[in-house]
# Entry
Amino acid sequence: QVQLVESGGGLVQAGGSLRLSCAASGRTFSTNVMGWFRQTPGKEREFVAAITWSGGSTSADPVKGRFTIFRDNAKNTVYLQMNSLKPEDTAVYYCAARPAPRYIISTFSRDYDYWGQGTQVTVSS
# Structure
């Protein structure tokens, strides 16, 4: 079993920055691919960014150039650095794990086996 715990959410004004953290407990093979998703009421959970064990990453078009995903494998932690935040970024942000032997980044939430509890990010205009 893998437990994921997000932190770092909060309230920020448009144009500001936040860094989200996701600490994973469990075996490292369970966190081969790590992703961030976000969800607002009435909408499907949407892909934000994901990263492989070796550091290759992909991000969704709405956040490209503003959000950066990175990880510290020694700490078994993945981060989402969010800059130039917009009100449209307001959502609950979830981290997710896609265990080995899978190694390809997926943008679909159904392809991730483990999920954190979520952290609220609110961007005011």
Observations:
- The first strand starts at residue 3 and ends at 7.
- The chain has a mean pLDDT of 95.
- The chain is about 0% helix and 50% strand.
